[in-house]
Please model this.
Amino acid sequence: MTGKSIPRVGNPPKKATKTEENLLLSELKQWEIIEHGAQGNGRRELHRIYEFKTFEAAFQFMSAAATRIISAQDHHPRWENMYKRVEVWLSTFDMEDQISDRDLKLARSLEQLWEELGKGSPPQDLIRN
Model:
């Protein structure tokens, strides 16, 4: 290893405009922007809490997101799972933790997966009769 950083494949992230952020927030009502530190100078993140009916459903969401979305987009969330809940924060480290076009895309993709998986319903193969 030479100590050099590995270059990213694809286009570099670009900072999201206020218009792009507001459009996302108007489309995806459960998302919000959280600012840390001095306004305008601190970390800004998109934030969402997903609630599930079971731990297994929450885990299935995270697993599907990791394999189908996150790997494909090469953009990784800060997230936490606590029982039936998954909390997600999105910002771009390479842009000093600001919101980028990649964060907007990932938020939309996570919402699409949430819809596809039945908005927190337990996976069908885990429902016991």
Remarks:
- The longest strand covers residues 43-51.
